[in-house]
Amino acid sequence: MRWRNHLFIFLIVLSSVAYAADSCDTMEKEIRHLFDHLENSPCEFNRNGKWYTAEEAAAHIHQKYQYLLKKGLIDSTEQFIDRAASESSLSGKPYMVRCGASEPIKSSIWFKNELGRFRK
User: Fold this and answer.
1) Whole-prediction pTM
2) Which of 28, 41, 75, 97 could form a disulfide with 110 if both were Cys (CB 3.0 to 4.6 A apart)?
3) Contact, 24 vs 34, CB < 8 A?
4) Is the residue at 85 inside a domain?
5) Which range of residues forms the domain containing residue 82?
6) Contact criterion met (CB below 8 Å) for 119 and 68
7) Residue 115 falls within a domain, yes or no?
8) What's the pLDDT at 11?
9) Which long-range contacts (CB under 8 A, 24 or more apart) does 34-40 make?
10) Average pLDDT over residues 36-65
11) In a domain, 89, yes or no
12) Residue 81 C-alpha from the chain's centroid
C-alpha cells in the first residue's frame, strides 16, 4: 500500500513540474513576442518626459526585465508588463506609447492589448 502512496505523490509532483515548465515556456514565448512587436513597431515611447524609439525602449525594458528575472520577480507575462514595461522605477510615472498621429496611451494598455491579440 505504501508504494502506491509514493507513486501517487511522485505522479503529482511530476505533473506539477511539467505544468510549471509549460507555463514558463508559454510566458517566455509571450514575452519574446511582446519584445518583437515592440522592436518592429513604428511607435515612440515616452519615459520620464522624453520620447524614445521603439528600439531604445526595448533595450531599456529588456534591462529591467533581466534585473527582475534575477530577483525572481517575474512569474507571468502580466507581471512582466506591470513590473518592467509600464512605468519608471525611479519616478513612478507611466510609460506612454504614441503610434503615428494617435494620442499617446499608457504602455501597459498597449502591451496588454497586444498580449490579448497574441493569445487568440
Assistant:
1) 0.80
2) 97
3) no
4) yes
5) 24-119
6) no
7) yes
8) 38
9) 34/77, 34/80, 34/81, 34/85, 34/111, 34/114, 34/115, 34/118, 35/61, 35/62, 37/114, 37/118, 38/111
10) 98
11) yes
12) 4
